[in-house]
Amino acid sequence: MPRDLTRPLVTGGAGFIGSALVRLLLARPEVERVVVLDKLTYAGSIGRLPEGGKHPRLTFLRGDVADRETLVHLLDFHGITGVLHLAAESHVDRSIERPDDFIATNIVGTACLLDVCRHAGIPLLHCSTDEVYGSIEAPGVFTEESPLRPSSPYSASKTSADLLCLAAATTYGQDVVITRSSNNYGPRQHPEKLIPRMIQCALRDEPLPVYGSGLQVRDWMHADDHGSGLIAAYLKGAPAGVYNLGARCERTNLDLVRSILSILGKPESLIRHVTDRPGHDLRYAVDPSKAEHELGWRARADFERDFTATVHQLARELV
Ligand SMILES: NC(=O)c1ccc[n+]([C@@H]2O[C@H](COP(=O)([O-])OP(=O)(O)OC[C@H]3O[C@@H](n4cnc5c(N)ncnc54)[C@H](O)[C@@H]3O)[C@@H](O)[C@H]2O)c1
Question: In this structure, is residue 286 part of a structural domain?
Answer without folding.
Answer: no
